[in-house]
Amino acid sequence: MENPLRRCVGGDAESFIKLKVDWLLRRLQGTSSLSHASANMRLLDYGCGAGTMLSLLGRHGFSGTLAGCDVSQEMLAEARRRWSSGSCPDLRLIEHERAPFDAGQFDVVVLSSVLHHVPVPGRNAVYADATRVLAPGGRICIFEHNPYNPLTCWVVRHTPIDKNAVLLKPCEVRTGLRDLGLSRLQTRYIMFFPPRWELFRPLDAALCWLPCGAQYVVSARKGAR
Predict the structure, then answer these.
(1) Contact 140/219 with Cβ under 8 angstroms?
(2) Per DSSP, what are the bridge partners of residue 106?
């Protein structure tokens, strides 16, 4: 995230993640397909890194159970070190392409800017494992960089952490989820305006159909048994 353009338009990395958290919380509050009340929701951040999204969810109104998993033991240790509000979520290491959680354990599974770091041949395994831990009737939400946005592509090319990233189009995400039997797929484009441009934030919702936002989110529902 160390990119000079970021300082001009957004501030720190957390301010960008906060935009995704706001979208997710609005989505969960308006989702009638979930069988549990918000206080009973179980949410997994799949590929949680240092736990920033989990921390923001806890600080901004999510009242259910939070958990996270990642392929890096060092990032999980950093997430535990940074956690400062109440009990730390259940954080576990992904090994052998499998998160160490039971099948159907979570009502919501979120992957935030994870898949573009996964080699293309390994992405189907990630879709499958994330779907495995999702409860029947639950929702999966996948946030990714939008390859149709030229500014996003420029930032990715000039950001060290994304050196080997391969961006993916929304249709790839939809296909991966549809092939696993998920339904009610929706694609929404977000981050038309950076964090510092709060005055324009209400326009994001009106523009969500336009494939020009800096990021997009594909959501889908796992059918009930």
Answers:
(1) yes
(2) 134
**Domain 4-221 bears CATH identifier 3.90.1570.10:** no
Which residues are paired to 143 by β-bridges?
112, 217
**pLDDT tens per residue across span 20-65:** 999 999 888 765 444 444 668 999 999 999 999 999 998 887 889 9
Say if residues 61 and 25 touch (Cβ distance below 8 Å).
Answer: yes
- Rounded to whole angstroms, the Cα distance separating 33 from 138 reads 7
How far from chain centre, in Å, is Cα 138? 15
Distances in whole angstroms, Cα of residue 21 to Cα of each of 131, 154, 164, 203, 213:
21, 24, 26, 17, 16
Give dist(CA 138, CA 7) in Å, integer: 37
Comparing CA positions, the residue from 138, 221, 152 lying closest to residue 189 is 152
pTM for this prediction: 0.89
Residue 173: both structure tokens together: 């995400």
Is 85 in contact with 59 (CB distance < 8 Å)?
yes
Using DSSP's 3-state secondary structure scheme, residue 156 falls into helix
Q: Which residues contact 140 (CB under 8 A, 6 or more apart)?
A: 108, 109, 110, 111, 130, 131, 134, 177, 182, 219, 220, 222
